[in-house]
Amino acid sequence: MKQLPLAIGLDTEPDFDSFVTGDNGLALAELQGLRYPGPPIYLYGPAGAGKTHLLRALAGQVRLQGGRCGWFDADAPLPWTFDEGWSLIVIDGAERLDAARQHAAFTLFVEAATHQIQMASAGREPPVALAVREDLRTRFGWGAVLGLQALSETDTRAALRREGERRGLPLSDEVLDYLLTRFSRNLASLMTLLQRLDSFSLAERRHVTVPLLKKMVAEEGQAA
Predict the structure, then answer these.
(1) DSSP secondary-structure letter at 145?
(2) How far is CA 31 from each of CA 73, 139, 144, 156, rounded to the nearest angstrom?
(3) Residue 157 has pLDDT above 80, yes or no
(4) DSSP secondary structure code for residue 4 in this structure
(5) φ, ψ (nearest 5 deg) of residue 67
(6) Nearest C-alpha neighbor of 9 from the set 52, 40, 58
(7) I need a labelling partner for 188 at 20 to 30 A (CA). Which of 41, 57, 122, 124 fits?
(8) Beta bridge partners of 146
(9) 155: which DSSP letter?
(10) Residue 159, pLDDT score
(11) Which H or E run contains 26?
């Protein structure tokens, strides 16, 4: 059955408390206990495992402590300008960096080491399997390399129920079955869907049911 892609976006900034741990408790504990500046941190795992969530949570923690962060990924325009006032530099989507951005990323690692700034990066593959220049691959794998696992269906269901309860949006087993068989199981995407479904159910003044969900998807498809 074809799965429907959903745009990613949350109505609250990700933090450590909102991370659905699943089998990733060790990685979460490592990041929560991070004392920086220290060796680089690298997260890897499949799409939807929570890599970007944890990087954003780490950046949010730095900002709460009065620090500033530089955030870069494959879509960030060049040049990548370094700021020695940063407390943290993040590079997300390491596997998607082109040659020019690989050079820019390596330069950031050098500057971070010189100015004692924490580096945190993520990609779908561990550093040893990344198709990037060798000196950058070495930098990605210099410190702690933490693998993340995708959530099980049980954990995903539990996370969706909790989010529904937080929104005052009870989700029946029938609705959850429909969500998990018709849409991508990327948790961030599913949370975005709940956000839209919450607004749609309020506008329609109806409880959340499979027919209501189908109606929302159909209307969004017509508007696209």
Answers:
(1) E
(2) 20, 18, 10, 22
(3) yes
(4) B
(5) -90, 175
(6) 52
(7) 41
(8) 43
(9) H
(10) 87
(11) helix 25-32
Percent of the chain with pLDDT over 90: 75
Going by pLDDT thresholds of 50, 70 and 90, the confidence category of residue 9 is very low
N-terminal to C-terminal alpha carbon distance within the chain: 22
Round to whole Å and give the CA distance between 112 and 115: 5
Contact criterion met (CB below 8 Å) for 172 and 69: no
125-129 contacts, C-beta under 8 A, 24 or more apart:
125/44, 125/94, 125/95, 126/42, 126/44, 127/42, 127/44, 127/94
**Structural tokens at position 141:** 């794998």
Model confidence at 18, in pLDDT bands (50, 70, 90)? confident
**How many Å apart are CA 180 and CA 200, to the nearest integer?**
19
Give the model's pLDDT for residue 46.
Answer: 92
What are the φ/ψ torsions at residue 90 (nearest 5 degrees)? -115, 135
- The residue behind tokens 């109606």 is 215
Four-CA torsion 192, 70, 149, 165, nearest 10 degrees: -30
Q: What is the pLDDT of residues 21-53, one digit of tens each?
A: 989 999 999 999 988 899 999 999 998 889 999
Distance (Å, whole) CA 195 – CA 186:
15
DSSP strands (E only) in 46-140: 69-72, 88-91, 118-123
